[in-house]
Amino acid sequence: MKLLLKQKMFSWFDSYNIYGEDGNIEYKVHGELSLGHKLKIVSPQGEELGEVKEKIISLRPTFDLYEKGKKIGSIKKKRFNLFGSAYNIESLGWIAQGNFTDWSYSIHDSNRNLVATIDKQLLNLTDTYVMDIVSPQHALHVLMFVIAIDAEKCSKSKND
């Protein structure tokens, strides 16, 4: 299953549409006013499916994940990694590893099975990510990861 996250060009808050392989909108993401990033994931019909909230007080970038209002875990950036960024996706037992440019990621489960690959497309006016997800049941969680790393990069660029 492939998904395409494409940010909107002009938006007061983070706003994305996520498209399926057929070009139809599969998910919508809307940012909300808060300290740190707070992003809600909804179905095309407006049903809330998930939320990604940045923890403000944390030694390393951390995002809490919620599915239908219930906290399901966190994404934490690993402290030291020689080649690109790495993240633990707690509660799912996943590890995401970026390449040296941090434009491509692979996510593996605790048995080292591939869950998804993510590639940032470079020649676009807005941030655009392609997610190739092995099992459709993991689509929402992979999307949460992509939203979190994009938010982390946005926060980092504002602080640089």
What's this, in brief?
With 160 residues, this protein is mainly beta.
Description:
With 160 residues, the chain is mostly beta strands. The chain has one domain (2-159): LURP1-related (Porin, Beta Barrel), CATH 2.40.160. The protein has one helix at 139-159, and strands at 2-7, 15-20, 25-31, 38-42, 48-54, 62-67, 70-77, 86-89, 94-98, 104-108, 114-121, 128-133. The model has no long low-confidence stretch (mean pLDDT 86).
- The CATH homologous superfamily corresponds to LURP1-related
The CATH architecture term is Beta Barrel
Element-level helix/strand string: EEEEEEEEEEEEH
Return the structural class: mainly beta
Strand content: over 45%
Number of domains: 1
Number of helices: 1
Rg over CA atoms, rounded to whole Å, is: 15 Å
CATH class, named Mainly Beta
